[in-house]
Amino acid sequence: MVAVMCSHTRPRSARTGRTGRPRSVEADAAILEATRAALVELGWSKLTMGDVATRAGVAKTTLYRRWTNKNELVVDAVAVLFDELELPDRGSLVADVEGVVLQFAALLARPEARTALMAVVAESTCDDALRVRIRSAIVDRQKRLVVQGRERAQARGELPYEEDPGAAARNTDLIFDVVAGAVVHRALVSAEPVDDEWARRFTLLLVSGIGSLQN
Predict the structure, then answer these.
(1) Which of 3, 22, 173, 206 has a CA positioned 20 to 30 A from the CA of residue 200?
(2) What CA–CA distance (Å, rounded) separates 201 from 98?
(3) How many Å separate Cα 145 from the centre of its chain?
(4) CB 58 within 8 Å of CB 30
(5) Is the torsion defined by CA of 75, 80, 81, 86 positive or negative?
């Protein structure tokens, strides 16, 4: 499990001792885009590294220099989509949360994001290493939005500062779980719209709860 986490945070050439030309940002982007397109068209079970290489116009060996297997490749293909999320500065905690909820829902509405996320989550139920990689590459990285939102709200005087780092980390985890869980369930499980009205009502419920966490 530790090796899986390290494989995401360290370039593969550094880990294996290989030398050669530096990685191409353009090639990586093409590979990840091809992976998402293949998932939409073929599904998880039929997706192969060879198919992705053909779609991306690269040699299959190029893929294996970057990703050990399909699991790693698909998680990274999903992760870059979630890295597009940003916390908007709309002047208040409520408005900021509404903005990121709607942005998250819009991302999940994209076929490539929806299909890829559902595929890796389903596969991770029987693959502990994949679950660890999802947590490190997607979940932990996106907790930055909660941290940024709370720091911004504290600077505005909307939330008190927290003196206990441990409590702050636990609260960050809980807030992330509530937001991600609610939006994913609404959009992907219930298949109901995450519109302005739902985002407003959900945000009011969430923010009232966040206030109680500080006490």
Answers:
(1) 173
(2) 9
(3) 11
(4) yes
(5) positive
The token pair at 47 is: 């997706």
Q: Would you state the structure tokens that stand for residue 55, as one six-digit string?
A: 């779609």
Q: Residues 88, 80, 153, CA angle at the centre, nearest 5°?
A: 25
- Closest alpha carbon to 139 in 179, 105, 95: 179
- Alpha carbons within 13 angstroms on the beta-carbon side of residue 124 total 16
How far, in Å, CA of 210 to CA of 212, rounded? 5
State the Cα–Cα distance between residues 87 and 101, nearest whole angstrom.
9
Class of residue 181 by CB neighbours under 10 A (exposed 0-12, middle 13-18, buried 19+)? exposed
CA distance 72 to 124: 11
User: How far apart, in whole angstroms, are the C-alpha atoms of residue 28 and residue 9?
Assistant: 16
pLDDT in tens, the chain (215 residues): 333 333 333 334 333 444 444 567 888 999 999 999 999 999 888 999 999 999 999 999 999 999 999 999 999 999 999 999 999 999 999 999 999 999 999 999 999 999 989 989 999 999 999 999 999 999 999 999 999 999 999 999 999 998 999 999 999 999 999 999 999 999 999 999 999 999 999 999 999 887 666 55
